[in-house]
Amino acid sequence: MKVGKLNHVGIAVPSLEEAMETYRTLYGATDFVEPFDMPAQGVKVAFVNLPNSQIELIEPLGEDSPILNYLAKNPKGGQHHVCFEVDDVNQAIEDAIASGASIIGKPRIGAHGTLMIFVHPKNSNGVLVELMEPPKDH
Ligand code: CO
Fold first, then answer.
1. How far is the centre of ligand 1, averaged over its atoms, from the C-alpha of 9 (Å)?
2. What confidence score (pLDDT) does residue 136 get?
3. DSSP string of 52-115?
4. Ligand 1 center to residue 54 CA distance, Å?
5. Calpha distance 16→33 (Å, rounded)
6. Is the model's pTM score more than 0.85?
7. Which residues lie at CB < 5 A from ion ligand 1?
8. How far is the CA of 124 from the centre of ligand 1 (A)?
9. Domain spanning 6-132 has what CATH number?
10. Domain boundaries, the chain
């Protein structure tokens, strides 16, 4: 596998609106992708657009949200994952498995509308790694 650009850093938050306000007032961010629901993933997502990358803000959606456990341990929120671009997610999965890593779930369409997968944090120094195919408008 060969990773490309850092696409985004995922941050779990209890409130998208409050987190966006923090990026607006404390850090002077002006460019956002407004919140939208991803019911199949059990999350609500917004993006802070930066000159070279994005911050993905993730709020739980529904009772079975995978983010709820994380927020139970980190009530104020925290860094949840980092996301690297790869040309071909299915190839990256094959390569990861061949390297002895564990992937989480099956590849699916992520918040950018392209194929993505998670690699288990135990294989990456405790960091949950998302691999995604680059958005078409890149
Ligand atoms: Co992500």
1. 7
2. 79
3. S-EEEEEEE-STT-THHHHHHH-TT-EEEEEEEE-S-HHHHHHHHHHTT--EEEEEEE-TTSSE
4. 10
5. 11
6. yes
7. 10, 56, 83, 130
8. 16
9. 3.10.180.10
10. 6-132
